[in-house]
Amino acid sequence: MIGDLGAEDATALAALVARNEVTPDELLDAALAAVEARNPSLNAVVLIQEGVARKAIAEGLPVGPFRGVPFLLKDLGIEARDFPSHNGSRLFANTVYPGDSSIFQRIRATGAVTFGRTTSPEGGVGAATEAAVYGGPTRNPWGPGHTSGGSSGGAGAAVAAGIVAIAHGSDGGGSVRITASSCGLFGLPPRSAARPEGCAWRSVRPR
Fold first, then answer.
1. Could you tell me how many helices (H) and strands (E) the chain has, helices first?
2. Do 121 and 92 meet the contact criterion of CB atoms below 8 Å apart?
3. How far apart are CA 187 and CA 195, in angstroms?
4. Chain-centre distance for alpha carbon 197
5. How many of the other CB atoms lie within 10 Å of CB of 106?
6. What beta strand segments (E) does the chain contain?
7. Which CATH number describes the domain made up of 10-201?
8. Which residues have a catalytic role annotated?
9. DSSP 8-state secondary structure symbol assigned to residue 123
């Protein structure tokens, strides 16, 4: 079992799984341990659904580019039946969705193991991730006195802190890009119908 995701990117983790050097359950164990150790000082991860993730692994993951890699959804906009959302607001706290959005279905098809959600400012409005529903701001792993950006600040903080190697982030007005700049990451914003949502990444590799 690997004890820390912080040194590897999502491509490397998927390769370890493909070579049977580590299992998806072991990667999930490492991600959960990282949440427990690092999240209390960051306030980046606001929902854990370990049982949902374990069930997805047990039932067999799709053979995609991120098969077995732990993944976190932003707590804004993405409807996923097993992942209730606050959308950053007390008004929408614990919203339960009747089904999965097409975007989440596409995320699942990559083989990634979604196990929780990350913070977002209320309604996704703002270049800093602060919302009363989460009990306070999301802090930057490089300096707790600084912002992690927004509105995908939870995703950026989780990746920068080594909790996960990749996390979902939407970008309606610079959210992924602002967060990537704040947290020292690569931000992949939406570009077209083929890529309607973004992500925060630890690295970018040449084709």
1. 6, 10
2. no
3. 13
4. 12
5. 15
6. 45-48, 70-74, 113-118, 130-131, 136-137, 139-140, 143-147, 166-169, 186-188, 198-201
7. 3.90.1300.10
8. 74, 151, 175
9. G
Closest CA to 120 of 169, 62, 190: 169
Nearest Cα neighbor of 115 from 33, 11, 199 is: 33
CB 167 within 8 A of CB 35: no
Q: How far apart are CA 68 and CA 77, in angstroms?
A: 24
Model pTM greater than 0.90?
A: yes
Q: What length is written for the chain?
A: 207
62 Cβ neighbours under 8 A, 6+ residues apart: 108, 109, 110, 111
Domain ranges (residues) in the chain: 10-201
pLDDT in tens, 92-105: 999 999 999 999 99
Model confidence pLDDT, tens digit, residues 31-83: 999 999 999 999 999 999 999 999 999 999 999 999 999 999 999 989 999 99
Pairing, β 70-74 against β 113-118: parallel
Query: Is residue 71 within 8 Å of residue 52, measured between CB atoms?
Result: no
